[in-house]
């Protein structure tokens, strides 16, 4: 199996466009604090999102891709979308997707690094949003430019870059409806917002977890009271919170206790997890920045992969009502408020899961405390349709050609709401969900980096798969 691309030219092209064009633009992009609207309510007034949109729009417009049309689409009251069309042969369509909004800063960046300070160290470009997911627009257009340079035919392509993904893509359904006639009915969807098990082969994502988020508040007093007077009379809001969380999670094992949040894991996904664990070995958990002496939740690497892809898991991602230690007086605090992030498996109805969480947390509150669980819009998980033989072969060809290793498949623990939307609208489509978020790349956290060498190879792989898509079945 060999790629349709001229391998030497493709590698030289990808090296050149990344070093001379993509990386300079990404460096400027990282400097823009264009946080997703959930983290920057004044995103319009601040103008950072507009700066990021303008940077990517201008870069794409300058690319010598025959027939390329670039448009910033704006619906009233919503974040903008960059929509691109590239003509092709035949009636078929390929949809390429990415996003340009970013997660907030997070603390803990290494000395000399920061969320808005791009720093290159060898093959790593540090800074918020480079890997998640600012590179996607550049790499998508670069892959199509590569096909044009080599004169390889392809189907009509559309590129959709949204600005709301990190907030759950709540603006995207309106754009999908508005742009439906121009999007058409894609038979292949390429998404560059996912991860890779290592940087040495092409990885495709077979499933994504959904997400239920909400704010749990426990209020026991109207105001704080001296702990010497109140403790033993009024319960600590923190202790009540602990009791409530124990209703939904076993604190000893992390197992979620609500049946509504589980799905049957398909045998194929279990087999893929076993194959990925065999390739990755202890890298499944060694990529984590463990504290001294810390260890993972299980000893079996396959089980760890299934834990993060097909089983629900709870994280507490924010806290209000607790003062910093330096200013913490001897006061029984009136309330404790936490933000809960519950990852749910594919095939679990997110609204049913959200309702189950709300019932469990709010029912019969201890000591008659005022307990409220305020939900955000839940996001559905996604399970890929069966892989078509042509796409399996195309991914293997691309990975062998540009990585020198076979392609691999595994599930991801994150959420890409767009995939669930597309799965409903285009159930017959095939999906290449991939990305550069590999070991220690730490999306959403401190020291996020983009692996440059992987990005270069992935660009060529995407071009190769799109070329094979055009000739599938021929």
From TrEMBL:
Residue ranges of every copy of the Peptidase M20 dimerisation domain listed in the record: 207-365
Alphabetical keyword list: Hydrolase, Metal-binding, Protease
Pfam family, one: M20_dimer
Protein name per Swiss-Prot or TrEMBL: M20 family metallopeptidase
